[in-house]
Amino acid sequence: MLNKEEIEKIIPQRDPFLMIDEVEEFIPGESAIAYKYVREDEWYFKGHFPGNPIMPGVLITESLAQTGAVAILSMEENKGKNALFGGIDKMKFKKMVVPGDKLRLEVKVIKRKGPIGIGEAKATVNDKVVAKGELTFAVVGD
Fold first, then answer.
1. Domain regions of the chain by residue span
2. β-bridge partners, 117
3. Is 48 one of the annotated active-site residues of the chain?
4. SS3 for 133?
5. CA separation (Å) from 121 to 43, 52, 61?
6. Which is the catalytic residue, given 48, 108, 122, 132?
7. CATH for 4-140, options being 3.10.129.10, 3.30.365.10, 3.40.50.720, 3.30.420.40
8. Spatial separation of the C-alpha atoms in residues 68 and 123, rounded to whole Å
9. Tens digit of pLDDT per residue, the chain (142 long)?
């Protein structure tokens, strides 16, 4: 299990844009499972939506991307680099994510060629799929 400090040693995102709270497990270059504890005081709930807080789909997608980045950037040859979006495909949002939810984020790398790859991503709450799709990434940096 990795906490936020350990996650920050792998990926470059920082609060308030670090969108994962802990990593349950990861296999460098292959997969990662992480969690986001959706709190009522999240910065984006001030405007999305007042009186009816719903986690934006784009931030669920970002949480998944950061989970995938843990898998990719934990590889020895990628340490100190960054993983950028190259594309988002087949992303579907099935249920709302609201304060109090424990968002389980799973990403499995299904294709890699050089610095480019694709991750199969799935977010669940209480074993129910809230979002799924494919994320294309590009590893950049020295």
1. 4-140
2. 112, 137
3. yes
4. strand
5. 24, 26, 9
6. 48
7. 3.10.129.10
8. 12
9. 999 999 999 999 999 999 999 999 999 999 999 999 999 999 999 999 999 999 999 999 999 999 999 999 999 999 999 999 999 999 999 999 999 999 999 999 999 999 999 999 999 999 999 999 999 999 999 7
